[in-house]
Amino acid sequence: MTTRTSTSSTPEFADLVSRVREVVHSTESTDGDTTAEGVSDVATRVGSVLSDRLADGLPLPEHLRWHDPDHYTQHIVHVEPSGTFSIVALVWLPGQATPVHDHVSWCVTGVVEGQETEEVYEVREVGGRSHLVRVGETVNVVGDVSALDPPGDIHRVRNSCQELVVSLHIYGADIHRLGSSIRRAYDLPTLDRAE
Ligand SMILES: [Fe+2]
């Protein structure tokens, strides 16, 4: 992954930041609460904010489409001064993908351009060895938003179209301090589904 710091000064982005800030600060005391799907209240509400903002329009400054021919790119667009959340734009060329990974915090994603596929994995013991088992797959198009919360958030995201893909990712973590929200990348043999 290539990382750049790339701010956005559009009013629409400023509106997104202020609405996410409102949600994160108002749910700090209830951060441990989860829905039936295991996603925290804060991630669900941030997902609604991002979904609404994408529906209302979120113009993408051209510099946030900058990409690296060798790796997918992470543009760090906003890190909240208190460190409570960060917003990055991830850019994939056709064929580029993240490793299989999980996160240190809740994570909300929304597609701004193109089509990406999110594969969900579980680690299972098969034949006495740890394997990654692919247990689900979702195709996300422009405007689609998804929320993940550890534990149980092992996934991989890949460009699944022939064009550039850009998606916004909001994490409940300080990306300047950590460099990335990835807790662990999993390099294990992969099975499509356990019998
Ligand atoms: Fe991720």
List keywords for this structure.
6-stranded mixed beta sheet; 195 residues; single chain; 3 helices; metal-binding; oxidoreductase; Jelly Rolls; iron; Metal-dependent enzyme of the double-stranded beta helix superfamily; 12 strands; 4-stranded mixed beta sheet
Low-confidence stretches: none
The biggest beta sheet reads: 6 strands, mixed
- What Rg do the Cα atoms give? 16 Å
Q: What is the count of DSSP helices, taking H or I runs of 4+ residues?
A: 3
Strand-and-helix sequence, N→C?
A: EHHEEEEEEEEEHEE
Q: Tell me which ligands are bound.
A: fe (ii) ion
Give me the count of strands: 12
Strand-residue fraction? 35-45%
Order of strands, widest sheet? 1-2-3-10-5-8
CATH domain topology: Jelly Rolls
Count up the domains: 1
Q: What does the average pLDDT come to?
A: 90
Using the coordinates above, name the CATH class.
Mainly Beta
